[in-house]
Amino acid sequence: MVQKLSSKERQKALDTLKYWKKVRGRDAIHKAFRFKDFNEAFGFMTRVAIKAEQMDHHPEWSNVYRNVTVVLTTHDVTGLSSLDLELASKMDSEAA
User: Fold this and answer.
1) 6-10, 38-42, 48-52, 88-92: lowest mean pLDDT where?
2) Tens of pLDDT along 22-75?
3) Structural domain containing residue 55
4) C-alpha to C-alpha distance for 45 and 16, rounded to whole angstroms
5) I want to staple 27 with a disulfide (CB 3.0 to 4.6 A). Which of 5, 61, 79, 86 is the partner?
6) In a domain, 59, yes or no
7) What's the CA angle centered on 69, arms 24 and 12, to 5 degrees?
8) What is the pTM of this model?
9) DSSP tag of 23
10) Is the pLDDT of residue 1 over 90?
């Protein structure tokens, strides 16, 4: 079973993830992605959805036209875990 990150682990992770920020009032991180158009945004979400399903770890996200807003947290541990860091890294790679 996955473990909740300690405060030190959480801060170290945020230092390595570009533009990911802590969500105020929650043990979660968030990031806003902006793409050229809706097609690119939807393609990104599709690629990430496949990875998320394989991980059995699903983001909280929304899409409006070319913008995708993401919140990551692990509900099973009520906070951040290594799964969130892995998915955040995957999202960054897919968006690049």
Assistant:
1) 6-10
2) 999 999 999 999 999 999 999 999 999 999 999 999 999 999 999 999 999 999
3) 7-95
4) 22
5) 79
6) yes
7) 50
8) 0.92
9) P
10) no
| Domain annotation covers residue 37 | yes
Q: How many CB atoms lie within 10 A of CB 82?
A: 15
**Rounded distance between C-alpha atoms, residue 37 and residue 44, angstroms:** 11
* Angle, in degrees to the nearest 10, between helices 82-95 and 38-55: 150
CATH for 82: 3.30.1360.20
Residue 36, by phi and psi: left (phi above 0), alpha (psi -120 to 50) or beta?
alpha
Say how far apart CA 78 and CA 4 lie, in whole Å: 8
Residue 81 burial (CB count, 10 A): 24
Distances (CA, A) of 85 to 2, 36, 38, 64: 12, 25, 26, 24
Query: For the chain, how are helix, strand and coil distributed in percent, rounded to 5?
Result: 45, 25, 30
